[in-house]
Inverse folding.
């Protein structure tokens, strides 16, 4: 049977790249400890029992009450499966490091996750690239390091990291002595089973498209 946790994103919404024809991702919280479905205080047990009793039969409020109860029971069951991935203490570092570390812990819990999506910002700038871009790449590097620090060795050869961006950079300088959004970009593919090297060619700074963008040599869909 397919896992309900095949794809996971740490966010309050599902990004379009994780919405498919057959399934879409599950949104989870990356920080702190799990509470709902796992907490074992007397008041929590009373809440779980009430939800389970509500889902045991038809509710007088109708179909939507039944669906709500069933969904809450599913959430309780799912929380129990996920609980091991939220053990081990607080993950240090930035938000991105925490989410990358939590992604590794989800893989360690072996609950059927196939795809995890984590995002980091700081690249949407149009000047000061010498400082801003270096800072953003530093956060990316720290997040990747945190991921592998948390990942158990038994999964190291089964995991591949892929970076991508929704925009690239233009070749021309702008009025702020920086660069604006462009079409082509670069992706890094990381993992023990990755055959390293450069795939595609170096983009020409002279052979641009009619809008002044670099011309990509690899279709991103083939990369996926």
């Amino acid at each position: 049977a397919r896992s309900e946790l095949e794809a996971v994103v740490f966010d309050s919404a599902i990004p379009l790249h994780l919405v498919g024809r057959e399934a879409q991702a599950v949104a989870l919280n990356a920080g702190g400890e799990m509470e709902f479905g796992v907490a074992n205080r007397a008041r929590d047990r009373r809440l779980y029992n009430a939800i389970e009793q509500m889902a045991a039969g038809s509710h007088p409020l109708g179909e939507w009450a039944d669906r709500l109860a069933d969904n809450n029971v599913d959430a309780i069951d799912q929380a129990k499966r996920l609980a091991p991935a939220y053990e081990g203490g607080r993950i240090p570092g930035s938000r991105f490091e925490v989410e990358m570390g939590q992604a590794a812990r989800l893989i360690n819990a072996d609950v059927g996750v196939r795809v995890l999506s984590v995002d980091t910002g700081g690249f949407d700038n149009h000047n000061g690239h010498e400082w801003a871009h270096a800072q953003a790449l530093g956060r990316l590097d720290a997040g990747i390091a945190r991921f592998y620090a948390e990942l158990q060795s038994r999964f190291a050869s089964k995991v591949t990291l892929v970076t991508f961006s929704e925009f690239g950079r233009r070749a021309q300088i702008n009025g702020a002595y920086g660069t604006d959004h462009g079409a082509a970009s670069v992706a890094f593919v990381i993992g023990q089973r990755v055959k390293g090297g450069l795939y595609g060619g170096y983009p020409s700074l002279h052979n641009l498209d009619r809008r002044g963008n670099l011309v990509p040599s690899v279709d991103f869909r083939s990369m996926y």
